[in-house]
Design a protein that fits this description.
Radius of gyration: 19 Å
Oligomer: single chain
Number of domains: 1
Order of helices and strands: HHH
Largest sheet: none
Length: about 110
């Protein structure tokens, strides 16, 4: 059986950007959290993930199956971002602004 599926450069770039986006997002979340520069790695990861989705869409439209995998990786990173922002934002805002909702233990 002959594999008729072609892999284009844009499909391979989509997978590479998806993996890099996930890598930079995870590094930005865990490593940079100790030096208070978490946002830079996370934003870079999100930008790369969005590019991965766009390039994956273009590759998938041309019949490249790698485009589908690039879109999955980019979407996975964005879903992780939404979940982590939803879970961590209320606690980080409450603790960073001396909220009156938090009572001091005397």
């Amino acid at each position: 059986m002959i594999n008729t599926n072609k892999h284009t450069q844009i499909g391979i770039a989509s997978i590479a950007l998806g993996l890099l986006g996930l890598f930079f997002y995870i590094i930005g979340w865990f490593f940079f959290s100790f030096v208070d520069n978490r946002l830079y790695g996370m934003i870079l990861g999100l930008i790369l993930s969005i590019l991965s989705i766009v390039m994956g869409y273009l590759a998938n439209k041309n019949g490249d199956s790698y485009g589908k995998y690039g879109m999955i990786l980019g979407g996975f990173t964005i879903i992780i971002t939404i979940i982590l922002i939803t879970l961590t934002t209320p606690t980080s805002v409450a603790f960073s602004h001396n909220s009156p909702d938090i009572k001091e233990i005397s």
